Amino acid sequence: MKPLYNIATKIAEKALPLAGRFNEKLKLFTEGRKSVFSELEEKINPNKEYLWFHAASLGEFEQALPIIEEIKKEFPKYKILVTFFSPSGYENKKNHPLADVITYLPLDTRKNAKRFLELVKPKIAFFIKYEIWPNFMAEIKKQNIKSLLISGAFRENQIYFKPYGGFMRKALQTFDHIFVQNDASITLLKNIGFNNTTLSGDTRFDRVSRQIQYNNKLEFAENFIDKKTCLVAGSTWPEDEEIIVPFINQTSEKLKVIIAPHEIKEEKINALEQNIKKKAIRYSQRESRDLASYDVLILDTIGLLGKIYSYANIAYVGGAAGTTGLHNILEPATFGIPVIIGENYTKFPEAGRLRQLAGLYSVANAEEFANITNKLITDKHFRDKTGMIAGHFINSNTGATRSVMNYLKTLPDFI
Known about the structure:
Elements (H helix, E strand, L loop, with lengths): L1 H18 L4 H10 L2 H8 L6 E6 L2 H17 L4 E6 L2 H7 L7 E4 L5 H11 L3 E5 L5 H9 L3 E7 L13 H7 L4 E4 L2 H9 L5 E3 L3 H7 L9 H7 L3 E8 L1 H13 L4 E7 L4 H10 L4 E3 L13 E3 L6 H4 L5 E4 L12 H4 L5 E3 L7 H8 L3 E3 L3 H13 L1 H16 L4 H9 L7
Parallel strand pairs: 1-2, 1-4, 2-3, 4-5, 5-6, 6-7, 8-9, 8-12, 9-11, 10-11, 12-13, 13-14
Helix pairs in contact: 4-10, 4-19, 6-7, 7-8, 12-17
């Protein structure tokens, strides 16, 4: 299987630049990788020791952040290199202040892996959740670089546990240690002979729990909400908007709604605006406007959602109404507010757990959304109880970062 994998990677390396002519995301994917090695040659200081964190995209970067923050505090001698696989991760975080160098991960060829690691010479390679690349892992092992998988979450239907998944199993087994989110992952890994595991939980809980400690004040949000009940719909896709917009248009409640679409594209924002019958305004149009006179605020910007959730009385988190994947339910839950999602969440165990606790509700259509949202608006006791459950869920699941840090402190050549 690995020879086929390598052939496919080589084909992709040749084909992606052509495909990028017709797709903006693929264009960023290929153009961004052209300068990776020259950037590393320029930015990597050969006299310093680097810790390398690799994240697929934004969500995985958020999982890495608590560990990076702690390392910066406790082991400031190390420099931090962050690589991304996706353009959405890199483009949004390429100037993040906690990293010393941020770049794309080159495509997973043996040549790229060898050159990359010889340039960086990382003390430890941290991979987040599920980003496992066979050629990079083989070269990491060959160069005797310690490697850790953080916040791993495994399912029985993944390739590692299939009869034909030998080459990926071999890549997985090169890790020195794997920190997992749940007991099921430990069992699956034991079944393939991997025992160097720690049940740490998910570092995202640590990340979101810290949000309360930050300054979340946004004056425009306060002006818009004007002390009324507020529904925040975060990271929505058109499928989510089909569920929530009918309620917005029909409700007679004195409700303020903030919508943060996942894709900030003009045609998507226009379509959303046209479907909303209430008085709506974009964030980009807020200057010199009486925001309190509007019913709906559309965030046509990025980077504010984490703070916006602090103003919500109810949160809807997008992604599960369609097949794009549920976005981060932990961000609103940390503020102790009820969470509503779509029905396609089976691959997101934290959503299932919070639903079982009754801190989260899943809806299949606009009618179900209207029913639960009306109950949350009109029954303050029910809303407060649901939110309390959500907040407790976050607080009772923190500590994954400390597990990783405790492990690092046992390494004699790390401290």
